[in-house]
Amino acid sequence: MKLADNIYTDIEKNRRFEKKLERIAKGKSAGPFFVVTLPVYSHGILEIYEYNELLQNFYRTLDDRIVILGVSDSRAGARQLVCDILEDHLDPEGRLVWP
Q1: Is the dihedral of CA 31, 8, 53, 26 positive or negative?
Q2: pTM
Q3: Does position 32 have pLDDT exceeding 70, yes or no?
Q4: What mean pLDDT is reported for the chain?
Q5: CB 9 within 8 A of CB 81
Q6: Backbone phi and psi for residue 58, each to the nearest 5 degrees, phi listed first
Q7: Residues 17, 24: contact at Cβ < 8 Å?
Q8: Which residues, including other chains, have CB under 8 Å from residue 45's CB and lie 6 or more apart?
Q9: How far is the C-alpha of 39 from the C-alpha of 3, rounded, in Å?
């Protein structure tokens, strides 16, 4: 599992948030929260997972494909992060542009 250079979040960026990112980077459980990822397979644009789901054996085998772009304490917050990410990466014609 990889963390993007720029993580989108609706969580206050404090020591608690930094510890959460450290645990994610190490692949350890970090409590109940949701993450926005690039698609694990070739379908879709972005995906939302409960973080602990990604710690299951099935996803561990796909670990190198999982790139986390956003972190939220709620599914609704994760949906809003998807909107924010898409707005930031759409060109004037509405096409998705990734850096």
Answers
A1: negative
A2: 0.87
A3: yes
A4: 89
A5: yes
A6: -55, -45
A7: no
A8: 39, 86, 96
A9: 14
CA–CA distance, 11 with 77 (Å, rounded to integer): 9
- Per-residue pLDDT for 96 more than 80? no
**3-state per-residue secondary structure call for 37-99:** ECCCCCCCCCEEEEHHHHHCHHHHCCHHHCEEEEEECCHHHHHHHHHHHHHHCECCCCCECCC
Burial 38-67 (b: 16+ CB within 10 A, else e): beeeeeeebbbbebeebeeeeeeeeeeebe
Residue type at 44 in one-letter notation: G
What pLDDT digit, counting tens, does each position of 37-85 carry? 998 887 788 999 999 999 999 888 888 889 999 999 999 999 999 999 9
Q: How many beta carbons lie within 10 A of that of residue 79, not counting itself?
A: 14
